[in-house]
Amino acid sequence: MKSLQNYVQLFLTDKRVLTVHKTLKALLDLLPATQFVQLHRSYVVQQEFITALHGQVAYVQATALPIARDRRHIVAQLLAQRPLHAGHR
Description:
The protein is of the alpha+beta class and 89 residues long. It has one domain. It contains two helices and eight strands, in the order βββαβββββα. Strands 1-2-3 form a three-stranded antiparallel beta sheet, with no helix packed on it. It has a three-stranded antiparallel beta sheet with strand order 6-7-8, with helices on one face. It is globular, with a radius of gyration of 13 Å. One of its GO terms (molecular function) is DNA binding.
């Protein structure tokens, strides 16, 4: 998900992109916190699709997204808790 002020773009696994008239905060309140993580003020991703973390960039499959400094440790911890094969989707 990518925030665009009062809209959010949803990037679906089937490559469709939907735009909804909601704030990112409103959508976050509806999502299960155990499955989604906010990388940056503008980006929320489903945890299982994060494949790598390098510096201030998180990779969601092949897409590089910025990650806030104060959230980097959260993503690093999520990746460290996975079985070795889980990051290769």
